[in-house]
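[job 0412] stage=fold_complex status=start
inputs:
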Amino acid sequence: MAALYEGYTLCGLTPSQNLSNSGIQGVEPERDSDHVVVTDSRRSVTLFKVSDQKSLSSWTVKQGQTLTCSAVYNSKTKEYVAVSDSKVIRIWKEEDIHLDKAFKATVSSDIWRVHSAAELEPVVLFQTGAVRFLDSLLSAPKQPIEDVLAQEEAIRWSTNVVTESQQLVIFTTEQKGDNFLYLQRFNPNTLQKYRLEGEEPGLSPLSFSASYKDKHIRLVYLYPNGHVYQSIVPVRGLGADEGAPALPLPRSLLLALPVGEGLLEAASAQVLDEAHVAVVGLPHPSAGAGKDFLCIWNTNFQTLQAGKEMKGKIYGQLWGYSNKLFIPHGKSFSVIPYECPKSSLASALGKLRQTKTEESKASTSVPSWNNILHEDKANPSKTVETRKTRTTRKSQSAPSLTNDQIMELIKTASVAEVQKEVEGLLSRTDVQDLQPSLGQLAAALVSRSLGEEAFYTPSILAQLVQTRCLCHSMCPDLVLLALEKKDYFLCQLCLQFFPDIPEAVTCACLKTFISMPDSDAEKVNLEPESISLMETLMAGERDPVGLQNGFSPATNDMDQAGGTEAEKKETTTPPEHICPVGLHKGVLLNEVLMTAYSDFFLLPHLKDLSPQHVVLFLRYLQFLYLKYSQDAFPQMHGLRSPTLTQIMDWVCLLLDAHFTVLAMTPEAKGLLHNLHTFVKSQVRLFSELGKIEGSLHELNKMKVNKDIGQYSIEVIELF
Amino acid sequence: MAEFKVHRVRFFDYMPTAIRAMAFNHRTERLAVARADGALEIFNFADNYFQEKVIPGQDGRAAEALCWLGQRLFSAGLNGEITEYDLENLRPRYTVEAYGGPIWSISSNSQGTLLAVGCEDGTVKIFEILEDRIQFQRNLDRQKGRIISLCWHPSGTLIAAGMMDMIKIFDAESGRATHRLLVERGVGASKSREVVVWSIVFLSDHTIISGDSAGKVQVWDGLTGTLVRTHLVTKWDVLALSSSQDESSVVAGTSEGTVVQFQFLSSNVGPQDKEWVRTRTFKNHSHDVRALAHTDTAVVSGGMDTQLVVRPLLDKVEKNTQESAMRKIAFPHRSLVCCAKKAGLLLFQFPDHLELWRLGESNGHGSPGDSLPVKRKPEKLIQLKRKGEDHISCSAVSPCGGWLAYSTVSSFRLYRLQNNTISVTKVSRLPKDLRSAQQLCFSSDSTKLFASSCRSSVLVVDLNQSDCKYLHTLRPKSGSSQPVHLLCVSEDGKWLATANTDCLIHVFNLDKLKLHCTVPVYSSCPTAIAIHPTNSNLVVVHADQQIFEYSLVQKEYTEWSRKLQKRGLHPLWMERDTPITHIAFNPKNPAHIILHDTFMFCIIDQNLPLPEAKTPLYNQMTLRSLPESERIMHSHAFKICKHFQHLLCVRLLEDHSLVVVERPLLDIQSQLPAPVRQKKFAT
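[job 0412] stage=fold_complex status=done
writing structure:
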């Protein structure tokens, strides 16, 4: 999971009066990842050391002059390049104090921007679309600049892309509502023109972001309607000559983000890596209509990975350099470090997801933005069918309420009424059909329940979760709500069916489960299958007293620490073989064990558990481990059960998180000793296995040579 | 298309024997190979390395050295005799006692007038070569210690002899030893052991090259008697040397199984400044390389591991052609298995005995790929030891399983078998013409026996209940003196076809007992012939892998054969390096021809289109994966099965099941003695 970390302010802002513009013109990388050059929209250029939140130097042009493009750092010559009043190129070094005394050159045409990349000659892009290398331009500043763009065509955005062998300049233009992309190559100089596919009329992309990989430029752009598109532009030319008509640029929808009311005005999308896009200026899907959020979305899985509220107005500006996002908001200019670990299906769905459940999931539908929003496009054959059924249904259920009506209803109506209507809706309609609205439905229910103490509809929520169309990102508060309402059945369902529960929530569940008294737990209704698993596990206990009414007094002993050790030794069963928790508690804990997690993110949350709970949980894990390893029990019933690796991983995690505390806790001593002996025996076993690994590999490699023997009668067929 | 029940037989313990000596005749391009059991094999290098002649061995006669003299082939062995071979009748012509104890080497002068043998008693004996025999001429000065190796100087005036610890140069005229070259012993523990000069080469510039038991290849100046250079090649023995005809290259075979090449090259300065440089090392043998021959384009080596390896020198041949491919000849190019297809019997021919086996039975049915349960195991019915000291040259069992015949070079034996009671009765009164045979064959109704004898003639013998009667001798008009190596009779008993090593194929009409026709001569030797049971077409496969079909009725090549020649055979078919050794027909489907070599068996369906050069020849796997309807589009006439390997025999029994006799090379290798110990890594 990607994460946004605590940000800090780089500097204050002096936005323009009407707050239309942040006052920041551009942010450019300097000598290393920790330095940036920030150009404000008027007169000054400032060099920052980011980690120190400190400005190192600042340069200002004379009153009356304005900087018209962001200053860039030419790492080749260790000089800064900026343009004032569109025509004057200024070049200075860090030790220069007065910009006015620095080198100046006036060119014959208006400059749009200067682009610079590490160790490469800066490139000057004119507003006419012409491109020059800085050094060749400076050698003859007054050289004529040709017009590349048409009369009413204006550059909207530009950047340079550095490939293995060359640098390219790409820029987008707008002409009478049409958008074009230009790709300028050097050596030989070629210019390729692409036409961007039009979105709804009148909509032009709000922001662009380009990245390069494998000889292709990946262009990601955001439209005011929240659609994020991706276009892949090949770096190698198609051989089209100059003046050829613009090629259509194929695009694919990456994300369709919720925009709240109206269209977006100031928003920006920035590519972070192949799978992640940072978006600013859009509402958080679960936090109302406010658009002041910075979010990271996974484009592969269409999931929200991290979100952060930015105080103050969002200007729709966003820069990203070396794992830091630079964002002006309100009256401050913030730096937010982020992290995008390589995402995989395993980490998205959770590495501990059992294959069995994955299979069953595959048959049901995984919520996907593409399906939700572009169902028609994605699989037209299917929709024909569903449309037919939908129309028939509509005609049948004319008196019943539509989705929107139900949504309204949820906000106001009584529990019974809501229950009736939603159940009706669920029973009426095909779940696949409903999928887009289920999330909204659930979110609405949850927000009402959170707001109104008395309002809670456990059965409907359970039903919704069981459709398997929901995920945590769609209604992030559902699990916590269930915990609050002590609806452990719903918790179980969520843990079971949500592929993307954050580690913090998993941990909260674990904390609640482990700390709740067994007597409470036994009252809970849980999924029968998981109970039967636990029953089989606990049936192994030979101590009949320990299982009265499914309640094990042993657990109390554990909670109250080691005083009863002596007693236990007298019984025939060693203490490790008695389940330290009650039946239902075990079931819930199993559910936690089976959820997906990433240890990196789980570990900090695990530290919140109290030592007593850790000991109890460890005892339970040890019990499971012994059961599994002794009785050769695992998965033989075809029930959903934690795997041995899951159990071991959790043991390791718990020990990692609490080792020092446990080492000093007297009651944990025996437990740790036991675990130590396990580990020792395991290590010994593995080292022995390691010794014969080579031979075993060879065995595997050996061709299964059938022993033919001296004589056999076989049947062959020739074709 | 065709489903077969296959009897997969691996109980034929065929074991080839080690190669002791070889001699290459550059003029006729024939390689003579002597094996440890005394057998002699002639390979025709001009005809795809076809093993055209085999002279069976004899107890106690193992050739230690071979020597060609024009077309004549001489051998000498540790029994102290010199033997000349009759290559037309495939037997020793005469033997001459040298009276010098065991003979270690034999060498003729380049003029072809004298033969020198090196004897255990220290003498080099010179024999004069006469028209029809050899005659002892004189001894050179007798030395102390045995003469291990010999080589004439090309001028014929000098002889170099390798001995223990030394090399002597003799003046062939006077018989005096003119030089004594002392060969250094090995270092260390072998210091106390005499060094044996195993092999020696005398070049026309008076350079002597020797290979010895201390692992050295030494270059000597024969004029001054000085050592020029020593190459330490191995820790073990250098057993064989052979030089190319132009004397620019010498190869040495070692006990480690390697062959090391030395070339006479100018190091850097001028063409005058040439020296013998070690250039290449080949490792194609697991055991001692006992014999070597240096042809113009290749190095031929053989030794304890029984395989004959032809390793082309890549600077002498065109790269990536069939000529540049290495050949390993591990199996004989003739069949040692005879199958009684009506009785389900297999006759295995060993040099000193015959084994008759009855195949097992299974009543199960299975789908392709299955192994069926064996209801009755195969059993060895008879093991018949030969009489006399000559090894068996050919054998046959009649299709009904009632007769068994074998021949050595000196005797012929016919047995009556009673299968039910397993009794063997020797037929005592044989026709007196039937003394020896090179090929044997029974008619399909088991009433006639055909035995090929001298000058390509075939004896026809009539068999009835218990005795046999001479009927006729079929003689071809051509008067070729070469032996018949293939014999086949048609199913209906009307035709008999013979093929000899002159590439002549004669067809006799057995009703009229006279020659019917001679098939147009093709340049390559036939390796298998068969007559189609229904349409009487003769199918011939040659050593160069060509296939012909000749209509005996029309006396011309059939339409299919012409088509095949016009289209040309598939390149992969032509690249196979073992000859087709047997042809059979499928009575169920007359368009099917079944043939096999060592690595595959093939059913040619004459009704199907011939494969184009670009279509894959081995397409059985592809066809298997295709649905039935598409197969016909992709299938072609050659249906090749490589499932069984190292095939010695593929026959179709009368119940339409196939018999394949496999002899995996690994089984042979596992029975070889341990090779010399070599240090490998940490052993």
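[job 0412] summary: Chain A has 21 helices and 30 strands.
[job 0412] exit 0
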